[in-house]
Amino acid sequence: MTVAGLELDLEVFSGPFDLLLTLVLREEVDLMEVELADVVLAYLDFLEQRGELDLEAATEFLVLIAALLELKSRLLLPRDEEDVLDFEPGEAADELLARMLEAKRYRAAAEHLSGRLAGEHGRRFRSARLPGFLRKVDLSESAAVYDPAQLGAAIGALLRVPPPISLAHLTIPRVTVAERLRHLRALLRSGITTFDEAVKGADRVTVCVTLFALLELYKQGEAVWEQEVPFGDITIAPNTPSGHHARMSA
Amino acid sequence: MSELVRTLEALLFLAPEPVGAVELAEACAAEPDEIAEALAELGEVFAPGRRGMELREVAGGWTLSSAPEAEAAARRLLAKPRTPPLTPAQAETLAIVAYLQPVSRPEITRIRGVSADSASGTLLERGLIEEGGRSQFGATLYRTTPLFLKLFGLNSVDDLPDPSAWDPSPEDEADLRERLLKAGEARVATPS
Amino acid sequence: MSELVRTLEALLFLAPEPVGAVELAEACAAEPDEIAEALAELGEVFAPGRRGMELREVAGGWTLSSAPEAEAAARRLLAKPRTPPLTPAQAETLAIVAYLQPVSRPEITRIRGVSADSASGTLLERGLIEEGGRSQFGATLYRTTPLFLKLFGLNSVDDLPDPSAWDPSPEDEADLRERLLKAGEARVATPS
């Protein structure tokens, strides 16, 4: 079985993975409501049942799930810096679809080529040295056929030093996970807080890093978090034995 | 067998690479239409299934190859496999190079979604692709080789089918739509 | 033509050296007398004067060779330097050898940023470059050949064009070799 046929039973969708993908791309299923973690878990279950790792299928799955995660993360991020956001969700879906179609096209072309090669099986070509009477080349009979300028041009191209790569367009991280961990722990010492509170006035990068820090706190068992509705505020509470159950919707 | 046909047979037996009709005409001091006629006659002699050799038009020229029926014996005698089949990763990389050439490694990686370094290395080693210049940023560009055409039985890359032929058909779209409706009904029937 | 005769024809076509009857029998999984009979039939087909090839028994066994009548045409087609257009990799490799000779293979690789094994192999085979001694570290050194001068219409390597016309920074005073090595290393360090 390939990745496409992976059977899913999610809250908002039940059916094969490829159908989910199609519905998401047609915006007939809201990606915001799809728990991608559950898709990954379903795939892991499937791998476990199967008992072996098909590298090609696993690669395909990673590519698809990464594309969905990218799309979803674009939908989830705050939208206050419209000029920096390069894609509308619709555009992102179009891009994803185009990319999948392109990959699919060359996978089909690859199958065609493999078939062609198999069809040529057994047709070998002769590779023998030329007989002696053809190996002697008379230098005086040879005419100039190449232009020396080709060699000069090749040397010129090899002398070209590539321009240094500009890193100007990359955001230099000004905020670290450790810093945001300290910030969150400080907030939690005075009880329940919210994600909005934790990132008040922060820029986009800080929001992301804070989310990482929050994941780390959750993993360490220091905090639990809850989001009542999509886009709603995330409540963060210090973890106590009787505390809330964490619920993540990423 | 006329003298011209015999000469052509000898030339194609000796030549290490496929030879174009123009070069054959020059070597034989014959007219192009005489060569065309002689090649047709030779093609009859070496038609598939008749002999131990076949006349083939590949990589822009004419060449003789062994007949596939002799492959088992050839492998025993020569003790080397013809061309091992391609892995899916190699076939995909080769397909991208064949259709988009000249194409750079980062572009191949972008299309495949995974790195193509090992696959393109193997294809280079096997002589199926080669460097064909550099991009404006100095990245090596790849293209297919005449050996690729020879081994895949192609006269030129233009003989490859239009890749849009493999795009999903309207029927497939309709099929997906139907499956969508069914899945929707199933969900209504079994609320979670 | 029986299947065995066809297989023999294919084997003798492919084999670069004469093949003994015993080896042929093993490869074809046939009895020695069957092979003898098949060889006799093949000898009829390829009797002198009939075809462009002849079946001959020589010291080491059986072999196909071109018919002597085709010799003049074969000379016109094949007894001349092969001069297809140089690929970019070949032109780069040949330019490095021409301007820096003698130069070692590792040096060529460092300047190009990618291996030049396949390109230098082709240039050697076509007789444009040749081995000329060893470096102090034991690497083979390459230099250009008289055929190279002939095919480029040069009297000596001193007549190679001054690269400053194509040089992106001709004011640089450093030695050509040093500059090429530096640029090559910069290319490798820059992911493209």
Keywords:
A: 250 residues; mainly alpha; two-stranded antiparallel sheet; 9 helices; B: 192 residues; alpha+beta; three-stranded antiparallel β-sheet
Describe the structure.
The complex is a heterotrimer, with one copy of chain A (250 residues) and two copies of chain B (192 residues). With 250 residues, chain A is mostly helical. In chain A, 50% of the residues lie in helices and 7% in strands. Chain A is built from nine helices and five strands. Chain A has a three-stranded antiparallel beta sheet with strand order 3-5-4. The C terminus of chain A is likely disordered. Chain B is α+β, with helices and mostly antiparallel strands and 192 residues long. In chain B, 51% of the residues lie in helices and 13% in strands. Chain B has a three-stranded antiparallel beta sheet with strand order 3-5-4. Chain B has a two-stranded antiparallel ribbon with strand order 1-2. Chain B is elongated. Classes of the chains: A mainly alpha (250), B alpha+beta (192). Chains in contact: A-B, A-C, B-C.
Strand content of chain A: 5-15%
Radius of gyration of chain B: 24 Å
Distance between the termini of chain A: 27 Å
Strand content of chain B: 5-15%
Q: What's the number of helices of chain A?
A: 9
Head-to-tail CA distance between termini of chain B: 81 Å
**Structural class per helix/strand content of chain A?**
mainly alpha
- Envelope shape of chain A: elongated
Q: Based on the structure, what is the oligomeric state of the protein chains?
A: heterotrimer
Which sequence of strands runs across the widest sheet of chain B? Answer: 3-5-4
- What is the N-to-C succession of helices and strands of chain B? HHHEEHHEHHEEHH
Q: Any idea what the radius of gyration of chain A is?
A: 29 Å
Dominant shape of chain B: elongated
Question: Which whole number gives the mean pLDDT of chain A?
Answer: 76
* Unreliable stretches of chain B: 183-188
Query: How many beta-strand runs of chain B?
Result: 5
The tally of beta strands of chain A, per DSSP, is 5
Percent of residues in helices of chain B? 40-55%
Helix content of chain A: 40-55%
Biggest interface, chains and residue tallies: A-B, 47 and 55 residues
